[in-house]
Each structure stands twice: as structure tokens, then as C-alpha cells.
Design brief:
The chain is mainly α. It has four helices and no strands. It is elongated.
Length: about 140
Amino acid sequence: FMNILPHKSWHVWTKKNRERVSRDETKHTEEEEHRKRRAMEVEQEKRVCEMRRRAKRRRGGAGGGDGDHKEESPPPLRHVNLFAPEEEGARPSSSGAGRPKNPDEEKETKEVQLAWEKKVGIVSYLGQVGMACCVKC
């Protein structure tokens, strides 16, 4: 019975393979330490930026920012209310819903609208008979 196993290159107990395993394990531990250090640095930088942002907000946005941070955090998202004028009871108009009301302008606008409706034939007053009924058959 021949013992040729130590002569095989894939045998786990050869001196060369044990050195390679040891080298690979050392490399792996160094890489893990590097990853952990990098993750801690990133987390620390994140905390520093957050603390700077909070301090700036407490000062009311005033004060000297050193400007060494790379990017500002985006403003917080807010609800967009498309129906705010209707909910407030204001009627949106071309003159602007937020402007104070001008009685003269409103009167003039109503007169122009009424004149146009009369011209087109849309307006009908109480007791007035429509144009189709006036035509005698």
C-alpha cells in the first residue's frame, strides 16, 4: 500500500497549501477590518453632517457654514394640495384667487360676461320665452 497523498498538489496538509490558507485568512481579516473602519468613518461623517444641519436649523439658518460638506440634504417632502382654493371657499379666477376683491372690477367683469351671453343667446330671464318658442309654426 503506497502513501502518495503528500505528493499531490491539492492535499490540504502540504506545507505550501497550509501557507496559502494562512495567507488567505490574514488577507481576509485585514479586508474585514478595512471594511469595518470604512463603515465607521461613513457613519461618523453622516452623524457630523446631521449635527451640523441641526445646529444650522437651531440658529435659524444664520451663521457661518464652513461649506466643507459635500451635499445638502433635500428639503422634506410636503403634501401638495391641488384643491386648496376650493377647500378655502375661494373661487379660482384668472384675476388671481389670492387677490383682494375689487367691486368695480367685479361689476365690469359681470357686465362684459352678460353682454357676451346676450349676444350668443345664452341668457334667459325669468318669464322670458326662449327663441325657439317665439317662432310661429
